[in-house]
Design a protein that fits this description.
Helix content is 47%, strand content 12%. The chain is an alpha/beta fold. The two termini are 14 Å apart. It folds into 2 domains: 180 residues, 3-Layer(aba) Sandwich (Rossmann fold), CATH 3.40.50.2000; 207 residues, 3-Layer(aba) Sandwich (Rossmann fold). The longest helix has 14 residues. The strands form 2 sheets. A 7-stranded parallel sheet has the order 3-2-1-4-5-6-7, sandwiched between helices. Strands 10-9-8-11-12-13 form a 6-stranded parallel sheet, sandwiched between helices.
């Protein structure tokens, strides 16, 4: 049987780290597929790829169309909010906050009233998606579909918020009668990223719980979805190639000590508070001393800020290991970050090692909390803000705590939420004394979000696609 040519558009980090990892590419080959990757300009122009297998995703054409049409901008804004959850309510308020100083009072009141009314009308999501696809059709990749005789397409997401480029790509394929499949790449996509732009031939979701969410919130037909698991987390079922002692020594830490791992968000204030507590006041944390690891969120809001450069230097000078997946060198070169996103280098999976070999994770309600549960790492979420002056609502702990996916009982049961510095110190002591505390709850939470954690999600995705061709 000849290879099945499958087009895969990759624009963001999450998609790249799911669909371009070596293990996923291997599963594609084993499943009889020949992937044709369409990479965003940032990735495509950074390296020399095989011109027969890699192409540039025409993001600039899509952006130009978006900037040209005011109505298209409004349609996409509305699509983000017609999925009515606590999270999208918060995101709507964040949008209003961001425009307060640029719009008139009357204009803001009109927009708030209009969006609030429209987002609650039944069937509005379908109408908006149909209107956008009919009146703002694109044809940026038609030539590639024909020339390379593409037989199907696989996209992350369904053209919802932050997946617009992939959504346009899928719609172009569907107009040429090419089946377009989709797989969800993050646990909050259904409740947080707005209404879909297209209906895939079949949608791969993580779990029964996620299937229920997409049917309810997106009016998605049950016959067009399958539970496959999270593709990007297959790696966490693989054995590590390096021992705990070897790994910690390789990053100049002491294997005889407990290891505390902090994975932060985009709020720079949290990093200064963590420095004050875990470096300047470290004798209060654990009397026998400890290794401390900081991993910043690889987002421009954080890494491009002057404050990050200062705090990163303070951490490293104090002997803290900074595991920076978004590192940029002195001349602004992002090559290493992009290589990591695309899985171009062999070697130690540092994040997997950190999740397996640390003793406790300090987090701010990010996806890392789920990854920690998969790896059975105790997690404490910081549920308070030490500094709030001048901080926008969207980066506060209060905002994070109120989001739909962060209020799930299983998630809260699987971790601890420190509502004060006293709580944080107490919970750290509990977990460092007994790493197995809450282990069963972590497992139940991981399974509830991810379904089967057997390392075969990618294989199930391949089977799903072939069964519908």
């Amino acid at each position: 049987m000849s290879e099945i040519k499958i087009g895969i558009p990759l624009h963001g980090k999450m998609a790249a780290r799911a669909f371009h990892q070596p293990s996923f590419r291997q599963r594609l080959t084993e499943g009889g597929f020949k992937p044709l990757y369409f990479l965003s300009p940032t990735y495509f122009r950074a390296f020399d790829f095989d011109p027969k297998q890699y192409f540039e995703l025409q993001v600039e054409q899509y952006d130009a169309q978006y900037q040209k049409h005011f109505l298209l901008q409004q349609l996409r804004t509305l699509r983000r909010f017609v999925v009515v959850t606590e999270t999208t309510d918060l995101r709507f308020r964040e949008l209003i906050e961001g425009k307060l100083f640029d719009a008139t009072l009357l204009g803001m009141a009109a927009q708030m009233t209009y969006v609030s009314l429209v987002r609650h009308i039944p069937g509005m999501g379908n109408l908006l998606a149909w209107f956008e696809s009919q009146f703002y059709a694109t044809h940026a990749h038609d030539r590639f579909f024909k020339e390379y005789e593409m037989q199907c397409v696989l996209t992350p997401g369904m053209g919802n918020y932050n997946f617009w480029n992939e959504g346009n790509f899928a719609l172009e394929a569907q107009r040429m009668r090419i089946p377009a499949f989709a797989a969800i790449t993050n646990y909050d996509n259904i409740v947080n990223m707005g209404y879909r732009a297209f209906e895939p031939t079949c949608l791969g979701v993580w779990s029964e719980h996620m299937a229920d969410e997409v049917i309810k919130l997106h009016r998605y037909p049950a016959k067009r979805l399958e539970v496959i698991g999270p593709v990007q987390y297959d790696r966490y079922t693989q054995p590590l190639q390096i021992s705990r002692e070897e790994f910690l020594r390789s990053i100049h830490l002491d294997p005889s000590q407990k290891t505390i791992f902090f994975a932060g968000g985009v709020n720079i204030n949290h990093y200064f508070e963590i420095y004050r507590l875990f470096v300047e006041g470290k004798e209060r944390i654990w009397k026998d001393g400890f290794n401390f690891i900081v991993r910043p969120q690889p987002h421009a809001k954080l890494l491009d800020s002057p404050g990050w450069r200062i705090i990163e230097k303070l951490f490293t000078q104090s002997g803290v290991y900074v595991s920076n997946p978004g590192s940029i060198d002195a001349i602004g070169d992002r090559t290493q970050e992009l290589r990591l996103d695309l899985g171009l280098d062999d070697g130690v999976d540092e994040l997997h090692c950190l999740l397996r070999y640390s003793d406790v994770l300090i987090n701010n309600f990010s996806t890392m909390g789920l990854e920690a549960a998969i790896c059975d790492l105790p997690t404490i979420h910081i549920g308070y803000d030490a500094y709030t002056f001048g901080v926008r609502f969207g980066v506060t702990t209060g905002f994070q705590r109120r989001m739909t996916h962060n209020r799930k009982p299983m998630r809260l049961k699987a971790s601890k939420v420190a509502k004060s510095e006293k709580d944080l110190l107490e919970y750290i002591g509990q977990y460092l004394s007994d790493r197995n505390l809450d282990s069963e709850a972590r497992y139940e939470y991981a399974v509830s979000e991810c379904g089967e954690l057997d390392g075969h999600a990618a294989s199930r995705l391949m089977t799903m696609i072939k069964s519908h061709l």
